[in-house]
Structures are given as C-alpha cells and as structure tokens.
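Reopening this ticket.

The earlier resolution said the output was attached, but the attachment link was broken on my side. Pasting everything inline this time so it's all in one place.
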Amino acid sequence: MINPMDLFKVKGLLGEFGTNHPKFFPFLQAVAQAGAKEGTIVEMTVTTPEGTKMETNLRLSESDLELIRLIREMAGQGDKKGDDKNAEAPQAEEN
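Inline output:
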C-alpha cells in the first residue's frame, strides 16, 4: 500500500522540479497537444559534466501516456480545458 505521506512528498518534489526546470512541464504539454500518441518515439541524450554522452529512445505505449498524464496532474499541470490551446510550443534549451 502506498503511504499517503510519500504521495505528498512526491507532489512537493514535482513542484520543486517544475520550479528548477520551468520549461519541462510546458514542453510535455505542448507534445501532448501536438498529438503524442501510442507509437510516438521519444529520444533522449544525457551528457555528463565530463562530456560523456549517452543516448536512447523509446516508443510510447498507452500506459506510458497514462503515466505522463498522472504525473502532470500530480504536478498541478493537468489538462485545463481551453488553456494554452493556441500557445506556441516551447523550444528546447541549449546549454
């Protein structure tokens, strides 16, 4: 059984994550609005401070999309009817 206090902790950490990375949740929202659906491929690249690069990709399943929806809701970024329908998609940050 899930400890309710852990859920509050996760919600708080998601809020902090959103504060630290303000473009991430809007990016997910823009992807969802653009039609992310089962079969969409997500590619990721991680570069360590030492310069090592790791790359992977994954094909989204319906359960992946449900997890994303749940995380967005927990972060207070759930679907709000009509909000940001015409918003410009955020661009990825370059560092």
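Reporter confirms the inline version is readable. The helical segments are 4-20, 24-33, 62-74. The mean pLDDT is 80.
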